[in-house]
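User: Some background: our group keeps a shared notebook of sequences we're curious about, and every so often someone picks one and asks for a predicted structure to add to the entry. Today it's my turn. The entry only has the sequence so far, pasted here. Could you supply the structure so I can complete it?
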Amino acid sequence: MSSYQIDPLQDARWANLVEGNPKASIFHTVGWLQALQRTYGYKPVVFTTSLSNGGLRNGLVFCQVRSWLTGDRMVSLPFSDHCEPLFDSERNLLLLMEHLQADRQHEHWRYIELRPIDGSLCQVGEEIGFRPSKRYYLHRLDLRPDVDQLFRSFHKDSVQRRIRRAERAGIVHERGRSTKLLNDFYDLLVLTRRRHRLPPQPYVWFRNLVDFVNDALEIRVAYKVQIPLAAILTLRFRNTVYYKYGCSDARFNHLGATPFLLWKTIEESKAVGAEEFDLGRSDCDYEGLRLVSFKNHWVKRPTDLVYWRFPAGEERSVQKTRGRNLARRLFAHMPDRLLTATGRLIYRHMA
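Assistant: Of course. Here's the predicted structure to add to the notebook entry:
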């Protein structure tokens, strides 16, 4: 069996496959791939066992990341929480992965990385050397219960009371894709990333998401007396809403603006037929546990999310950890203009 490559931005069969495949997510869509290409220069490509002159029965989408700093590699997909292989046959997927391994040496890719939700699909790759490289928690909330039942299922102190506190404080929110909302969101993002001692993603990334993902994207900003307190950016594909980015001004966190925004998103998404709220991945390391704890107040039982890589990834060395810690201390003291410029420079190398 042979493998073939198609350009998902030019071949309409990819959009048709994504629209009809139950495993597809927002991260498979043409709009998401266009935003990745326009912002970071990544070239999207789909590998399939389907002939070019027929319908597209399956596909595994990657972005080709070329970087003089971190090396060339194939990632499915950069800056995406997960990306399921759109295959219904483990045999075909295994054959395709073998073809990719052969291509790796010829193309000089450092590694090939897959980010499936369904770990069983990639476990077949263990036979040919794919190994778990990173582990995360994935929180997904079932929106099918009624609104009152959902509200009662959340943590009483950390969610329910904070939402009621925000309502009593007179917090209001606006939603949409306007430049004003985008700018308020980004200003809060810079504050939050500084608090975490990290550079923010480039502004143009969010601008491109607004332009290419279009009405599947929504920005919500909470205000009190016209002061932006917190913001979230969500995406929607079919019956699933994805919480992708959140940020806030820490001076006002006691008002509960972020839980308020998440609850409004849940209420309004459920009202228009959404059945799942994907809160995204969270790191399993020490620094990520705070986010895990926050999401556990909404979803009590997260699932494991495992990324797979060939060849197996290197273990994090003490030197690398020290280097990362040093960089974060530097980020913490950079002025905003330099911090955002750093983000524009380095994110395309991170993927």
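Suggested note for the entry: The chain has two domains: 4-136+308-313, 144-274. Residues 144-274 form a domain with the Aminopeptidase fold (CATH 3.40.630.30).
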